Amino acid sequence: MLARLGKVWLGLILVFLYAPILVMAAMSFNASPYYQLPFEFTVEWYEKLSENRGILRAAARSVGIAMVTTVIATVLGTAASLALFRYEFRGKAVLRVLLFPPIAIPWLITGTAMLVFFFGIGLGRGTPAVIVGHVALALPYVIVVVTARLATFDPTLEEAARVLGAGGWTVTRRVTLPWIAPGIIAGALFAFAISFDQFVVSYFLSEPGDSTLPVVIYTAIRKGFTPEINAVSTLIIVVSMAVMLVAARFSNFGGER
Amino acid sequence: MAGGTAISGARAGLIALLSPAYLWLTAAIFLPLSAMLFFSLVTELPFGGAEWAFTLENYRAFFETPTYATLLWKSVRLGLIVTVVCLLVGFPCAYVLAKAIRGRAREALFLLVILPFWSNSLVRIFSWAIVLRGNGVLDLGLNALLPFEVDVSLMFTTHAIVIGLVHSYLPYVILTSYLALQAIDDNLIDAARSMGAGKPTILWRLVLPLSLPGLVAGAVLIFVPVVGAFMEPRILGGRVGTYYGTVIEDQFVAVYNWPLGAALSFILLAVVLFILAVASPMLKRAQA
Amino acid sequence: MTKRLICAAALAAMAGAGAVQAEEIRVLNWQGYGTDLDWAVEAFTEETGHTVVHEYFNSEQEMLTKLRTNPGAYDVVLINAAFTPQAQEEGLIAPIDKEKIENLADVPADMAENQDLNADGELYGVPWTWGLTAYAFNTQAFEEAPTSVEVFWDEAHEGRVSIRDDALEAVQFAAIATGQDINDISDMEAIEAKLTELMPQIKTYWGSENDWNQFMAAGELDVATYWSGSASRSIASGLPVQFVVPEEGAVGWLDGLSIPESSTKMDAAHAFIDWMIDPEFYVKWADEGAPASANAKAAEALPEDAFNRQVLGDPEVVARVQFQRPVSDEDREAYLALWQKLKAAQ
To answer: Are the Cβ atoms of B234 and C59 closer than 8 angstroms?
Structure first.
């Protein structure tokens, strides 16, 4: 009874989570450029999108940058979480607290600070600078999420494996990583989301003409934001959903034992 | 001798694991933010040979202008409301996902929860506006379903802001709670039940304490950014959508007053850290 | 031998004189504001061989920050005349070589000699477009066009009006409503009182043309402050709105095109600016909805019924316009403090 109620609740929340996504998709097929109702079907926006190289190129760049960011942030973040979990050392509390400034200070300020600083040290701007910024913003999220999962890990398991003769890397690979895999996956998904939606840093640090999708979207609102943006967002969601469901079909990261 | 190597081996391991992430953060966040901290303490930005001097004036401005404190309090309240709603809504979801759903469906649902996150936040907010406004999707939908006329226009209210923010941040708490809940051994729950513990007792004494790390991580990832939010409040809140983040943004966008904007940001950071510091011993006690 | 040398020198001289070397110029502007129209850029590339890359800004402060922090990155920048003196004093922009801009001859003297665009006898921004900040109303909500700004304070429209979320615009709007000089506001108390009365009337603030169009299209608003160029675009796209220059007056602004001091492609930049004030470019742009051109020949080339001719071409209207002058940092911050105080009280 309670379990069924719970499933209903989960279903309702999924409806809530997808409501704006469905509206977004519906508006990509709606004729009104100002999202007026009633609904009037058209594929005009998809046709326009297929000719709009600016948006398509920006979307491709965003996906690429988000993938690179995800890999780097997940690897570095997981390593740092393991260190914070395994070792006792002076200054550990400080390192934990240091994760908060990048989350708490609005990205506008952090982005402005990066702009000034990167120019000061001669890194300038361009794709490497954008990735440096994205990874830095995603790292604290990865560390917080993976650390939360590690908190449920019993350290004596590592010790037992070591007593049985396993080396350091083997212990990590065979015992620790499988346990925290759901945390790593969640961290990676967040890292991708943060990079993919990151506006300020890309905006300040991209070369002119090399903008990312969020930059195209944010600058478009000044003038008029056409449903082409809904169309490209819908395509991205549909493709990601397909990729994710395939991934879910062939892997086991939910922690099922 | 052997002990010495073990310790230095441990130290090498620690450094190897920790330093890449923290060096990265130092280069891309801590040093730039230190520059901002410096700007918050000067009279003029030291660019192009401008004359500047150290001052605490920018911090004093916060205490001398009641607007800032009013808005900071408003933002903190919003952060708390959004966090609590997310926890109340998200924790049961995570529990169902971790304990009542098995097999492949679980992986699929896990991913489905996070997928809305992979869209642009601005597009999502605009979609909420279409749902919530008068003559919007919600209004038209309810009137089509209900036998009587209702006038639903949530747009430009605090409710709309909370709905939009909860939507944006809910996946954090669902996934972090899931990560903790899924780690609880079902045998432990069965054992408690066989010893006669009722459902509320199991939840309160066993499940909640064990899933606390996940709940706390989720709460932090929600509360901390929401206090500085300005985009969702502006679009969804309209006239009532002015928050502390708005006045910080204005100092960078409307006027060129980085020193004041930076000072306001660091005050925000200090208040957030203070709240977390006050909350952390309470949470530790709850867990013990 | 000598002959061949002379030949080579002659060739080199020709290449230099013709400046046929194709370059890529970078333009810093608001997005969708004329310079980045596909057909315009293509025509320019075809004519001169130079290619154009755009970068956008979302506020004047950001534009100045970009100029300060990215020397050498831009070749043409759009600067509102109220900000040109600041950019010039900071050494961010170079004087314009008037010889290289043929169409400048058709820009009337009152614009070309604008005190904010000129300094020390040099021109720092080529007058490009101008327009008004007044308001537009939803034609379905009014029987008769509201010709006085007092409509914003009319209780019949409570919760149905909007102004832009911008301290300077809010204060200057109130200055016009209280009969003051927007560039020399003497009675800030009257401004504060007037805006305080306005706040409960407001449904939401708008931030961009996109917001404005969506709120109007959704029927949320009766009347809202607006820019003339944007109004012409909204009307062209079919929204049921009409632009009004109220009897109390309106705020005028002038946008100029400047060349950053650090640009290394001066010739190409001048050529681009020349094309931007060309009547041929303007007439085509105005079809899609554009602000008024600073070039008199371009304005004359518009059809009789064009928005910019009808509304902005009327000398009686122009007489009511107060053109924006530079605003000091102190005033700007004082306006912002007032605006934030009012917004925070909601």
So the answer is: no
